[in-house]
Amino acid sequence: MPTAGIVAEYNPLHTGHRFHLTETRKQFTRVIAVMSGHAVQRGGPAAFSKWVRAEAAVRAGADLVLELPAVWASAPAERFAAGAVHILAGTGAVEAVSCGSESGDGAALEQAARGLIEAERDPLLPRLLKEGRTYAAAREEAVKALCGEGTAALLREPNNILALEYLKAMAAEAEAGHPLSFFTVKRLGAGHDSDRPEGGTASASKLRQMLGAGENWAAYIPEEIRPLFLGAAGKGEAGADPRQMDRAVLFKLLSTPPESLRQLPDISEGLENRFLKAAEQAKSAEELLGLVKTKRYTLSRLRRILWNLMLGNREPLVASLPPYIRVLAYRGGTGQQLMREIGQKGTLPLYTSMADIRRDFPEIAEVELNATRLFGLCCPEPVRIDEYPRLRPL
Predict the structure, then answer these.
(1) Binding annotation for ATP
(2) Three state DSSP letters for the chain
(3) Which residue from 14, 25, 208, 377 lies 20 to 30 Å from 50 (Cα-Cα)?
(4) Residues annotated in a binding site
(5) Residue 234 clears pLDDT 90, i.e. is over it
(6) pLDDT tens per residue across span 358-391
(7) Is the pLDDT of residue 193 over 80?
């Protein structure tokens, strides 16, 4: 049966996500989602627990939800995409990767991805970087020089950019003998990170903002899964706020030697010294980030560095790809059938127990456990989240 893979955060799952799932299911019999857990790509804790978000994904249309480990979830788009696509390819069951995009034109995105791969190997890119361009601006300029303005324009929209990173990761998997096809659904309604609802949808970032402000965020959650998110909010297991860690972050920085900071992902060019100097002056993490930020170092990159410091993540771990598949949730018989297929045909081992992962991959598991601990501590009132639940069909 044709099976599609989706890469998601569902933080939280909103009406736009459900539209993507519905459109994907029109073309594919089964859907597997790879979802970040308690650590998310922007650098910080998820707004809702991964167990709530995974169950919501199944109720909204996914048959099986797999976890993107925190080592790869709290990462720049390229590493985030590479880790997630590697898991999808490793299932042996996924035939295509489905993603939302502003473009909605699969052929144009595939052409742009080929141009992007060529541009990243072209000597023009390092020359532009030496001139002081940001990586994003230099990459777009290099693609424009090779492929023209129309193709380069695709690199200006956030969902298009993620789609291109998925395509790059798919090209690497194809070279390794795991080819996947590509399917995209045009994003409708509110744009990524849009500050206003549109067409009955609100962006996930807007929903998180509304949640924090006590506004009616639930109106933009699909009705069938709304009770899940409202129930979590009612128990205080929602609205995790990284500012709860401010003093702990400053302490962790001040008590970590420079040689250890240099082992963090995405630290380079003496950036650890800027962090240490700023930590001596700052009274909050946001103030610290403002002191460290330059044109070259974006806030998203700096936030991820601080989050990875708290997680205990290190560069040697991110240099590889995810070595296992972990199940977070599944839909009855179809999900069980998919797990059997993965066990028979997959190229990565399948796990349903964190205890087993902790035994076989202790360093990766410890980062994951730290993400869960930090999520609980960042909730409005600190809560303990079970990392060892007994999986059940939904």
Answers:
(1) 7-20, 100, 159, 187
(2) CCEEEEEECCCCCCHHHHHHHHHHHHHCCEEEEEEECCEECCCEECCECHHHHHHHHHHHCCCEEEEECHHHHCCCHHHHHHHHHHHHHHCCCCCEEEEEECCCCHHHHHHHHHHHHHHCCCCHHHHHHHCCCCHHHHHHHHHHHHHCHHHHHHHHCHHHHHHHHHHHHHHHHHHCCCCCEEEEEECCCCCCCCCCCECCECCHHHHHHHHHHCCCHHHHCCCCCHHHHHHHHHCCCECCCHHHHHHHHHHHHHCCCHHHHCCCCCCCCCHHHHHHHHHCCCCCHHHHHHHHCCCCCCHHHHHHHHHHHHHCCCHHHHCCCCCCEEEEEECHHHHHHHHHHHHHHCCCCEECCHHHHHHHCHHHHHHHHHHHHHHHHHCCCCCCCCCCCCCCEC
(3) 25
(4) 7-20, 100, 159, 187
(5) yes
(6) 999 999 999 999 999 999 999 999 999 999 999 9
(7) no
